[in-house]
């Protein structure tokens, strides 16, 4: 009988201790399971044992996925360059205006987009025909994969309107553009017409090379230093180009030449590039010492502000 009473007393003590412990922790346990301790307990002055020492299941919210940044080449990108040319041949001269647009209008697959291109001349004193084309361009490499139409073998050299992503540009180093060596300087910085800064790489050709030859006695060469290309730092977009081609007759240089220059004038949808790169800058004109007053006038009339 004594043993039974002792066992019963021990059991009651254990139950009492458990009840006291539950009462002591009631406020914080209620908070952990989502209740309102103020309404559940008549006294909030009691400071229970820290609830962080109690076992609890914490439900963490699932983080929202962060979409990867869009590539520079993406649907909605619209670029335009406006410029002018000067053609001098046997004492005669012509001054055509040049206009070029490139629009990324379709997503072909996960890493390929379609580029719609258009080039025309206005004024057009020599009645050059308008050109339209499509290209599939890789958004990772920035290179064209396929293009409509056929290449004219008479054109021996060309340059990209967006720098391939595997071509690294660095000050004082050389870059190879379609097989030709170029000196790289920069980044250069200038103030735009919008009062903000933009940075670019300047590329100039090191050597003379053949530009155009369709047979016969006439050829067009680019002399050393007669190609200037400015590419925007970051996006690799071509901002400005100036190419002078000298006529050779029977492999002898003549005074006849063709020179074209253009400047980016629209960049709707361009990512990671300052919005001020939309027009000609007086500082660029002075620094390059190549833009003519006619070029500036054409650009001033044809700029598209967005």
Task: Provide structural commentary.
17% of the residues lie in helices and 39% in strands. The protein contains 4 helices and 14 strands. Strands 1, 2, 3, 4, 5, 6, 7, 8, 9, 10, 11, 12, 13 and 14 form a 14-stranded antiparallel sheet that branches.
Structural shape: elongated
Helix content: 10-25%
Q: Report the radius of gyration as a whole number of Å.
A: 35 Å
Low-confidence stretches at least 5 residues in length (pLDDT < 50)? 27-49, 192-196, 272-306
**Most strands sheet:** 14 strands, antiparallel
The overall pLDDT, averaged over residues, is 77
Task: Give the SSE string.
Answer: HHEEEEEEEEEEEEEEHH
C-alpha termini separation: 99 Å
Strands, total number: 14
How much strand? 35-45%
Task: Describe the structure concisely for a colleague.
By secondary structure, this protein is α+β, with helices and mostly antiparallel strands. About 15% of the residues lie in helices and about 40% in strands.
